[in-house]
């Protein structure tokens, strides 16, 4: 990782350096300033799973962050790119992005862009490849979803990890060999089995104001019934709690989630640089991990 970088920004020195776990509290304060729901624990997780950079002003105050996550040698994602409202428009976000892209080299890189950030990412050779809908709420009505004959939901077991990594990697096109075990440490999980073979799963974990469901991985089908059964399982166990799920629009779960009472509160653009991911078309990631890690 690169060391300290300094730049003169509007007459004030900005220092760029690697993100450390000591920066979590300052990063959380910065994201809270923008209305993001992330807790200290949420920042801790993404920081431990990845690497990144911060921007500091002359007083040592964090004014910008950016993180990235490497998935094997060929792909990565980046996110948590934040610049203090008082410092926006001064090139800090672009510098953080340049440092992250230098760190990632020639990997295929995925990110989720807000309307405010999309223009910068396009300048850095990212191209739009889809959208992701954010759904959340507390007053939802999960239905009982029937599964095909021979299929059932069951608890995850300690021997399932290798298969979970395989499914998560195939569905996302990203090597989840490192991320998935870390997620399992902070999540609960349910498996979808067919005649004893694990063919899908969904995790839920504490996040922000309540809980986040994801990833949700299941075989592709016309009615998405398997993914709906996995999501409904966690909703039925958390009635009245705040629950969030981020789902790719092409998975066509948004209308169903809206009907359950999980309102769509935002949509981000999925963008890629240096080519496209090679996901297995027979599986889908119906719910992403989060908008940063993808």
TrEMBL record:
<dbReference type="InterPro" id="IPR052729">
    <property type="entry name" value="Acyl/Acetyltrans_Enzymes"/>
</dbReference>
<protein>
    <submittedName>
        <fullName>GNAT family N-acetyltransferase</fullName>
    </submittedName>
</protein>
<dbReference type="GO" id="GO:0016747">
    <property type="term" value="F:acyltransferase activity, transferring groups other than amino-acyl groups"/>
</dbReference>
<feature type="domain" description="N-acetyltransferase">
    <location>
        <begin position="14"/>
        <end position="154"/>
    </location>
</feature>
<keyword id="KW-0808">Transferase</keyword>
<dbReference type="InterPro" id="IPR000182">
    <property type="entry name" value="GNAT_dom"/>
</dbReference>
<dbReference type="Pfam" id="PF18014">
    <property type="entry name" value="Acetyltransf_18"/>
</dbReference>
<dbReference type="Pfam" id="PF00583">
    <property type="entry name" value="Acetyltransf_1"/>
</dbReference>
<dbReference type="InterPro" id="IPR041496">
    <property type="entry name" value="YitH/HolE_GNAT"/>
</dbReference>
<dbReference type="InterPro" id="IPR016181">
    <property type="entry name" value="Acyl_CoA_acyltransferase"/>
</dbReference>
